[in-house]
Amino acid sequence: MAKRKILVTRRWPKPVEDRLSETYDATLNSDDVPMSSEAIAAAFSDYDAICPTVSDKLPAGVFPAETPRTRILGNFGVGFSHIDTDAAGAAGIVVTNTPDVLSECTADLAITLMLMAARRASEGEREVRAGDWAGWRPTHMIGTKVSGATFGVLGFGRIGRTAAKRAHHGFGMKVIYYDAFPVKPEFSAETRAEARDSIEAVLREADVVSLHMPGGRENYHLINAERLAMMKPTAILVNTARGEVVDANALADALGRGTIAGAGLDVYEGEPTIPPALLRTNAVLLPHLGSATKATREAMGMMVADNLDAFFAGREPPNRVA
Ligand code: DGY
């Protein structure tokens, strides 16, 4: 039987590309040039599977009206708000993602951002590199102590809980959280985390607010000017989730006016473009590195391959989301 045709939209880790090429007639993107939505739309009639990433946009408009050749989208990533899953379902296309394998590294990056923002690490490095450091002095570049402070988690899922463990066990932080869905008692017990009954309650009480909810329509600009105004003037906002969860202009305004102390961001609405207002703030800005370690990116890719293999063998893919 001829091999199934699959399209991999970006360059992936070599061991994963090798595995996919062995099993499938795989079109790889060795130049790693982002594909346009039009090119992805055209691919639905040529490929049995498409393997997109967060850098591909698959809104309803790219999905064909008729049932296409493509049967499955094997997304490389846990977040899939860049894919209109309703439209995929209507076109009879299964969607899978890559949960769990990236929780530790993404949580590590949330803690990195917390510390960088709290200890003004980016500002300090910029000063050193610019040759502007005037030497040690007691009042120079004073930051915020996180040990013993309150770590507020919005979205107490796998990544949020993993970040909470690091904050609690590593820095003795008290953990509070809000999640729209019920949380198993054993999950909060791990960090003696206390539930709050609203986003607002977490925002008012936390010294660090770390975002871990999905992106997409339902959480669009959840953190807006009104909610930012509820945070403490000494508080720090960390976003390793999705850019669209935060209204970037409202955040830049809050940082500029000093109504919150700092922010650490890894994700942006419309990335890789960074909202200009944010560039003028003291926010720590990273280029979507949450899962960017060799082990994690390989594990993510292998998980996509597992999902495709199961699907084409007639089994339920282990990480089906739609
Ligand atoms: C994820 O897995 O969701 C990462 O943000 C990359 O898409």
TrEMBL record:
Domain D-isomer specific 2-hydroxyacid dehydrogenase catalytic stretches: 16-321
Keywords, in A-Z order: Oxidoreductase
Keyword Oxidoreductase set for record: yes
Pfam families, sorted: 2-Hacid_dh (PF00389), 2-Hacid_dh_C (PF02826)
Entry-linked Gene3D superfamilies: NAD(P)-binding Rossmann-like Domain
Keyword Ribosomal protein listed: no
Record InterPro entries: D-isomer_2-hydroxyacid_DH, D-isomer_2_OHA_DH_cat_dom, D-isomer_DH_CS, D-isomer_DH_NAD-bd, NAD(P)-bd_dom_sf
Domain of life: Bacteria
D-isomer specific 2-hydroxyacid dehydrogenase NAD-binding domain span: 111-290
PANTHER family, alphabetized: 2-HYDROXYACID DEHYDROGENASE-RELATED, GLYOXYLATE_HYDROXYPYRUVATE REDUCTASE B
Family assignment from sequence similarity: Belongs to the D-isomer specific 2-hydroxyacid dehydrogenase family.
Protein name: D-glycerate dehydrogenase
